């Protein structure tokens, strides 16, 4: 790890006083996203993959400030929907830096993207089914296409996020060459793509290597077909997806990115001349740049466990409820004792196993279970770490809870980049039903 650009940022590395000030000023729950760290992560990716096209998977964090930081760091944008394409355009990504990955794309999304392509003909649509090619052609699209392949091998931190091997994603590997050649009759086929899954840890690198090797093989076959009667394709890149994991547990070692890069280059080789490697990490760019701040409002000893009630729940950070994901939690203190006096500093408190639970009416609404924290007291501020990826993005208004605010730190300066939603926002989309049918008096 280079100094000033460490390979991981732990929840203990955040400036506690700064976070406490932000929570006091803006209220909780509050997301904090450090753009300097986003830039560092982009730089580390570029350093490890100097020859590759690096595309940021926008879905991990779509905030405008983050997208602009990523654009300035010279990564491209990989978008999963019309909404993400729209956000990337607004953040200044031109068509040549836009990649739209269409997974069972709704008609509305295809209409939108085909429209964008008229003004931005250099954008690329990544297609995972022959039907999608057909639907694009019907909309007059004849531009750049990348064929997404189901590589038959997947990896990831949870079964629900392993995409490689899941039939939903991509053309089956043994049909991919044929699909790409047929696509080339109508479109400019510029690449092939596969994505193993999300949160690949060091132990899963073999699967990653296998996927990459298969994709290299496919690219060679397409550019230089084994059958002399088959027309060669003029590919620009082989995109081996994202998925690079980051450590969530405090003592978990980070992925050795240069080593992963080396293994990737080796596995994909030899690439035909003129064909580049491409990657599309999301989590790696934004995860450890974000923290979620939440305030303790209830401490309840029970015969089974000590429940610490906080104001952030699964509507703010879904990952623990959805994937049993681990997020580090640090008690920043600031609370009061039962008699109203200031509680001692968290460092002076004993580590106590607690279950941190949110305000949602679901048993699964916990941020951790029976984890040892510096014994929380009412009013304490907790920092939930590694919350910058798939945090705010997966937030919902369930239980009619407005989504939290987000502050971005940029070179030390804080700015609210997403305001806290209000109760009015919850009902803003509602319209009066047509009552005429019922009003028969
Ligand atoms: N490319 C494609 C086509 C993807 O589907 C994804 C993620 C990525 C790139 C970026 O993967 P990453 O580098 O971020 O691992 N909500 C889950 C993660 C779902 C990821 C879906 N696809 C979570 O919170 O763990």
UniProtKB/TrEMBL annotation:
Enumerate the UniProt keywords alphabetically.
Amino-acid biosynthesis, Decarboxylase, Lyase, Lysine biosynthesis, Pyridoxal phosphate
This protein's pathway reads: Amino-acid biosynthesis; L-lysine biosynthesis via DAP pathway; L-lysine from DL-2,6-diaminopimelate: step 1/1
Q: Which domain of life is it from?
A: Archaea
The UniProt annotation places pyridoxal 5'-phosphate binding at 243, 280-283, 390
Q: Per the record, what are the reactions this protein catalyses?
A: meso-2,6-diaminopimelate + H(+) = L-lysine + CO2
GO biological process, any: lysine biosynthetic process via diaminopimelate
Task: Report the coiled-coil segments.
Answer: none
Q: Where is this region: Disordered?
A: 334-357, 424-441
Similarity remark = Belongs to the Orn/Lys/Arg decarboxylase class-II family. LysA subfamily.
User: How does it associate, per the subunit comment?
Assistant: Homodimer.
What protein name is recorded for this chain?
Diaminopimelate decarboxylase
State the species of origin. Answer: Halorubrum kocurii JCM 14978
């Amino acid at each position: 790890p280079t100094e000033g650009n460490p390979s991981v940022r732990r929840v203990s590395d955040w400036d506690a006083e700064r976070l406490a000030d932000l929570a006091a000023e803006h209220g909780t729950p509050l997301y904090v996203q450090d753009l300097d760290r986003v830039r560092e992560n982009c730089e580390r990716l570029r350093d490890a993959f100097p020859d590759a096209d690096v595309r940021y998977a926008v879905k991990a964090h779509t905030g405008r400030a983050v997208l602009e930081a990523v654009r300035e760091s010279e990564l491209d944008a990989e978008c999963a929907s019309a909404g993400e394409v729209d956000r990337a355009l607004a953040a200044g990504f031109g068509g040549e830096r836009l990649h739209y990955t269409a997974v069972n794309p709704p008609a509305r999304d295809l209409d939108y993207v085909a429209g964008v392509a008229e003004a931005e003909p250099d954008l690329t649509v990544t297609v995972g089914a022959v039907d999608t090619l057909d639907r694009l052609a019907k909309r007059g699209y004849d531009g750049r296409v990348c064929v997404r392949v189901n590589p038959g091998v997947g990896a990831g931190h949870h079964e629900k996020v392993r995409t490689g091997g899941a039939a939903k994603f991509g053309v089956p590997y043994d049909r991919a060459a044929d699909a790409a050649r047929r696509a080339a009759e109508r479109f400019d086929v510029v690449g092939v793509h596969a994505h193993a899954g999300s949160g690949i840890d060091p132990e899963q690198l073999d699967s990653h290597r296998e996927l990459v090797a298969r994709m290299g093989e496919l690219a060679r076959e397409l550019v230089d077909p084994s059958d002399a009667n088959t027309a060669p394709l003029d590919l620009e890149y082989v995109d081996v997806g994202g998925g690079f994991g980051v450590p969530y547990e405090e003592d978990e070692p980070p992925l050795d990115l240069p080593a992963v890069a080396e293994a990737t280059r080796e596995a994909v080789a030899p690439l035909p001349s003129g064909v580049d490697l491409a990657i599309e990490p999301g989590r790696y760019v934004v995860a450890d740049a974000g923290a979620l701040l939440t305030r303790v409002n209830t401490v309840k000893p029970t015969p089974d466990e000590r429940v610490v009630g906080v104001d952030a729940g699964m509507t703010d950070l879904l990952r623990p409820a959805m994937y049993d994901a681990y997020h580090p939690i640090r008690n920043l203190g600031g609370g009061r004792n039962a008699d109203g006096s200031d509680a001692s500093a968290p460092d002076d408190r004993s580590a106590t196993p607690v279950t941190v639970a949110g305000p949602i009416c679901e048993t699964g609404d916990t941020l951790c279970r029976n984890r040892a924290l510096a014994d929380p007291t009412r009013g304490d501020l907790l920092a939930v770490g590694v919350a910058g990826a798939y945090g705010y993005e997966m937030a919902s208004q369930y239980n009619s809870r407005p989504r939290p605010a987000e502050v971005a730190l940029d070179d030390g300066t804080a700015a609210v980049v997403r305001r806290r939603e209000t109760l009015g926002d919850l009902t803003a989309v509602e319209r009066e039903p047509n009552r005429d049918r019922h009003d028969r008096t």
